[in-house]
Amino acid sequence: MTAGGGSRPLLEVDSVVKTFPAPGGGRTRAVDGVSLSIERATTVGLVGESGSGKSTLSRCVLGLQRPDSGTIRFDGVDIGTLPARELRRLRSRIQVVFQDPHGSLNRRQTVRDIIAAPMLAHRAGDRAKRAARVRELLDLVQLPQRMGERRPRELSGGQAQRVAIARALALRPEFVVLDEAVSALDVSVRAQILNLLKELQHELGLTYLFISHDLGVVRYMAHQVAVMYHGELVEHATREELFSAPRHEYTRILLEAVPVTDPARQRDRIRRLSSATTEETSP
């Protein structure tokens, strides 16, 4: 299922399986036959409880792990068939922003060095061009230039995540995996970062895989929502379809767990849950 017609999706995941050794022997399917596509310049929200397979799928998409079977195509290219050099080149087009903004930054480096690190690793430009790109990126993520001389310990959580976003954009990627990228932030700061991500998508034409356990955040960010449960993709629909008429029982359970502030809606939810419980326990 895709967000629109026309050109080929930027990312296509087809029947991907990834297993790991199980404690008692055998293997556990962390990702079990997942198929998913993401159109260019759109956001797919990937939701599910801890252990549902979201992060494993994202690592396969990033090329950090190879699936046992199935294919992952980026811009039509099967990344599983690429030699190491080609895969390294492809990774400049696919970047990631992690959950812990401070933990993902090198504490010994200045902000300028952190943002420039991907360019240095990929030998992109000379020193002057890299310095100019860092200045451009600081402006892009709405940080003052003086922040460039600071170190991670001197930054707030929101500032640190802006630096992580700037670093992810340093090589001008087309696709960004946002792995719980706002879950560690305060609510007010979270809203600022979400708005920044939306602005960047609009300005740069970015494509996002937005991984989160927070359906409220996903509803704000995503054009489409994919729901994982025990390694399987149990539902994939547009945002409007999923939140208005979820088809899978697990999706309905996730939606029921979203906090609501409206007392009338909360009372209605309690009545519906009570009614469902009564029906399940009736002989």
UniProtKB/TrEMBL annotation:
CDD domains in UniProt: ABC_NikE_OppD_transporters
Name of the molecule in the record: Peptide/nickel transport system ATP-binding protein
MF term (GO), any: ATP hydrolysis activity
User: Which Gene Ontology BP terms does the record give?
Assistant: peptide transport; transmembrane transport
Record key words, sorted: ATP-binding, Nucleotide-binding, Transport
Sequence similarity: Belongs to the ABC transporter superfamily.
Q: Which InterPro entries match?
A: AAA+_ATPase, ABC_transp_ATP-bind, ABC_transporter-like_ATP-bd, ABC_transporter-like_CS, Oligopep_ABC_C, P-loop_NTPase
Q: Which residues form the signal peptide?
A: none
Q: Where is the ABC transporter domain?
A: 11-255
Instruction: Please give the coiled-coil regions recorded for this protein.
Output: none
Q: Which Pfam families match?
A: ABC_tran, oligo_HPY
The record's annotation in SUPFAM superfamilies points to:
P-loop containing nucleoside triphosphate hydrolases
